[in-house]
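User: Hi! Is it possible to get a structure for several chains at once, not just one? Here's what I have:
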Amino acid sequence: MKRALWILAVLLSHWRRHPMQLATLLVGLISATALWSGVQALNQQARISYDRAASALGGARTATLVGSNGESLPQQIFVELRRAGWPVSPMLEGRIQIGGRSLRLLGVEPLSLPIEASAAPAIGTSGLQGFLSPPGQTLIAPDTLAELKAAAGDTPLTNTGLTLPPLTPQNESVPGLLVVDIGVAQRLLNMPEKISQLLLGQRDLGPRAPLASIAGGETLRLVEPDAETDLERLTDSFHLNLTAFGLLSFLVGLFIVNSAIGLAFEQRRPMLRTLRACGVSALQLNSVLIVELVGLALLAGLIGLVCGYFIAATLLPDVAASLRGLYGAQIPGELTLRPQWWAAGLAISVIGALGAASASLLKAIRLPVLAAAQPYAWQQAQQTALIVQGALALIVFAGGVGCLLLGDSLVAGFAVLAAILLGAALALPAVLGLVLLLSERVARKPLAKWFWADSRMQLSGLSLALMALLLALGVNVGVGTMVQSFSKTFTGWLDGRLAAEVYLNAASDAQAVEIKAWLRDRPEVQAVLPGSRAEAQLGGWPIDLIGFADHATYREQWPLLESSPGAWDLVARGEAALISEQLALRLKLKLGDRVAVPTPQGSWPLEVVAIYADYGNPRGQLGVAIAALVAHFPGIAQTRFGLRVTPAAVPALVTALREKFALDNRSLADQAALKAESRKIFNRTFAVTNALNAFTLGIAGVALLTSLLTLSQSRLPQLAPLWAIGITRRKLAVIELMKTLSVALITALLALPLGLVVAWCLIAVVNVKAFGWRLPFQVFPEQLVQLVGIAMLASLLAALLPILNLLRMQPAQLVKVFADER
Amino acid sequence: MHGKSPLVSLMLSVRALQKSYRSGPDRVSVLRGVDLDVAPGESVALTGESGSGKSTLLHLIAGLDAADAGEVRFGDTLISQLSDAGRAAFRRDHLGLVFQQFNLIPSLSVADNLAFQSRIAGRHDAAWQAELIERLGLGSLLKRYPEQLSGGQQQRVAIGRALAVKPLLLLADEPTGNLDEATADEVMSLSRDLVSRTGCGFLMVTHSARLAAMLDRRVHLHAGLIA
Ligand SMILES: Nc1ncnc2c1ncn2[C@@H]1O[C@H](COP(=O)(O)OP(=O)(O)OP(=O)(O)O)[C@@H](O)[C@H]1O
Ligand SMILES: [Mg+2]
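Assistant: Yes, the chains can be modeled jointly so their relative placement is included. Here is the combined structure:
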């Protein structure tokens, strides 16, 4: 033990003498761990809330019995099932509107509620009395209570004029959900004696009669508990995107670690030999090397976790906002981390460090005690490495093409992306070598020839950092192009989707009628377009049915991607539907296919007559005639409408409406405000992507800086002879700077085509698989120029410190190069 | 494992040692059956022309490389029968090694370089170390790093490091090869004194007849054999 400690002390002395190298190593490990665990923290945070939502009341973690067509059930069936020994509990679910806001309402029967399903302990114990006896309670999450601007104990009115039981905030409640007694729910939803599903508990109540033998039992369908909730399924691609970015940054970080450890190993070679000669066995030495590495990884991992926590905390508001905007998922704004997160972060740091060090560790294991008789054939080895890397690049590219042709999943899409990036990184040194060789051939003056030849020699030391730069830039160009393409398409699409000048949502059906009557007398209002919305399930996916009137506004402006002839007429008759692009892709539907939508009035057959773009919406959508929608979903709110108004008259009309009917900003919005809102959601969605992008570029800059710093020390023997023959230090510094900038520029230029390929892959492969929509591919030259500029600036900053070192170097240090032959 | 056994009367005996190297397609025999003994307290100079295999012989004795045939024995310990860990432990506990150059660990100070082998061997003796520092004249250099030392100073530190473990045998491969005549003489007499103080054996490779003459005995390696 003591012996091992002494060996460790000798090994560690290297870092004391080379603190910059240690810093590089730690920075690489810290940033790798920080970005990876930061992204994991975000994902974990979201999963915890999905899980909470799923296991809370009304979640999908309990098996249920539902009507086989999704229709509601008579309450009597509950009694029959209980009699037959089934541990069921009735539930009624629906939507109500309070103050123009749509909320999920859940009616439960607390006495029969299975223990495993009731994550609302207040009902289970002392609160039971209060929940059941009049006036009852409405359980609500504190966040939702605040959103409604209500206080505990308030009894708000629904849009149909009914009173809710007193609001009772509960921390365990799912945001956006109201839980009441089932009797209350039947009254509020106007569904007397009806239930929407039966929770099936795990408790054994003795032998059960088969479903078919129970009166009405044949209409029931058993739904197994979902391993994955709707939310999880919908948000999967979002989290996969985050994970992919986390992984990318992690790998860039490991690039740095790998180069730092590789360099340290080369420099410690004599030390390792001396240790072996003085009686440290190979096994001992390697064990201590691993202990040293693991120790450093744990230290860096801890710091990285703290940084990761801050990254996650910084990004969380944006992530939460985009999850809410895109998916309606409610994520609390504060991070809570599980112990597993810390453990996993440390583990990933250690595994990453060991992985990045594996080449060096293998070399250490095989290190002969005696130096080889022949001098190490450095050039030869470098040449071989280039060829091997080039061959690997080709193999990786081939694998990518294979994934592209054969794969059909999002994972395959990311595999293609990874193959493009990895292949490009591997091919970079070979390509750079070739470019530099050609430049050397073309150069005439001796100093210019030396310039290119020496750049080529430097390549092996810089190649890892340049690879990191290439990857970071390529990803930046790719993602930037995708976001820009999206932004442009999105703007045009918004114009089509938000064709009405004013959008209005009345507080109740009664008010809606009142407003419509008032609008009839206003000459500037050219049309009132009612709209309505219902939810259903199709092919296991949650979908929205949106009902709209048959009007020229839609016929002319709806952003159809393809349609069959006479589509709008068929839709108006209630026989056909427009379908969103992502739903069509997900369910593999083409024009002319038929779907059957489960509704409370039974199955509704619809023909697919058009496919339209519906960017930013993870839920599938069907566009149908409003009259037919209301007929199939009686009782849905009919409080929304769009108004076609002479544009000049919009502000006056909005003001008049607001004053007359006391409508707030949420209930009444003009087109411009809605567009601004949509764009804000859109921008927040990509805020995370942009932040991670910037981090990646930052790490690449650090990688370049540290490689240049470490390289600058080993470069003295190359520079000293030039200095000795009369080239000033200032001139040498300029030459060194130009060399760094020229390889960085070549790399940046190579990153442009790479980035465009990445963008294409994101747009045509990953996006289609992840979100279900395809975008037109566009190139934005000014963005490319800007990124190259940023890359050059980063390289300049990275090159500056070593150059300053060179400028300040004492001649004695240069002379020393000649003095000792080391 | 060898740390405690009494090996005081032990002597080095090399018998019929053979070693060849692959050189392109064919093998070159460097040692063709070397016999050599070094008794405790005895100092032996090993001479021979360049490429005759002196370093090779030293490496085989130290267990840094494996012989093709023949044996290296310390008392009843057969080096070739030890595992890598066993050979390492033997070097650590009983051998002092000094090479022509690059003996020191660049990132350790002179004081730490002097002490690390004895520390790893678990037999650090502060008094003996202090005496070595005094005799080798390293007192003012303890805080320096190897790169801040002259060649002669570096070799004195290397000898100090090798003797700090009180080895049974000190193996030195042209320790003065890089030094000027005066410094070489000084380093030589120092080592000879210290060796006789500790009673350990001393086998030194040298090109210089003058230095060889300062030791008890001289053996010459020629054509793969000791003459
Ligand atoms: N690892 C090796 N592989 C191949 N040949 C080797 C190796 N090590 C040594 N040799 C060869 O073995 C022969 C003896 O080498 P060795 O280093 O023992 O000579 P030496 O007597 O120490 O020479 P010098 O006085 O120059 O140090 C030389 O011809 C050398 O080229
Ligand atoms: Mg030699």
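The longest helix of chain A spans residues 446-497. Residues B 54-55, 173 surround magnesium ion (ligand 2) (CB under 6 Å).

User: Great, thank you!
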